[in-house]
Design a protein that fits this description.
five-stranded mixed β-sheet; Transcription Regulator spoIIAA; alpha/beta; 4 helices
Length: 113
């Protein structure tokens, strides 16, 4: 799994590339926690290039989502598709995660919330 960070104004977009599984989902969690320590307020996790997620990947997303909410920061998860979307639907988490269909939609939701 590869993580790349880019910015759109004050919003940080984390592009995730590869599989989110037991062996590497902790990397995303660690990255977000380090960014939160720096008081970054707005996050988009882009899952466009993620084709596989397991329970530890879901666990990492739940942890990230709850940590960001607790600190009154904002998060959107964008571009969920294929088997990743199926897993999130099966775990009944579609309503829990702040999901957007695209980066553009995520940016406008964060800016208007």
């Amino acid at each position: 799994m590869e993580l790349k960070i880019r910015k759109s104004g004050s919003i940080y977009i984390i592009d995730v590339n590869g599989e989110m599984d037991l062996y590497n989902s902790y990397k995303l969690k660690e990255l977000i926690l380090k960014m939160m320590e720096k008081k970054i307020q707005y996050y988009i996790i882009n899952l466009e290039k993620v084709d596989y997620i397991d329970s530890s990947g879901i666990g990492a997303l739940i942890y990230i989502c709850s940590s960001i909410k607790k600190n009154n920061m904002k998060l959107r998860i964008a571009n969920i598709h294929g088997s990743v979307k199926k897993v999130i639907e099966l775990t009944k988490l579609m309503g829990y995660f702040p999901i957007s269909n695209s980066i553009e939609e995520a940016i406008s939701k964060i800016e208007t919330e």
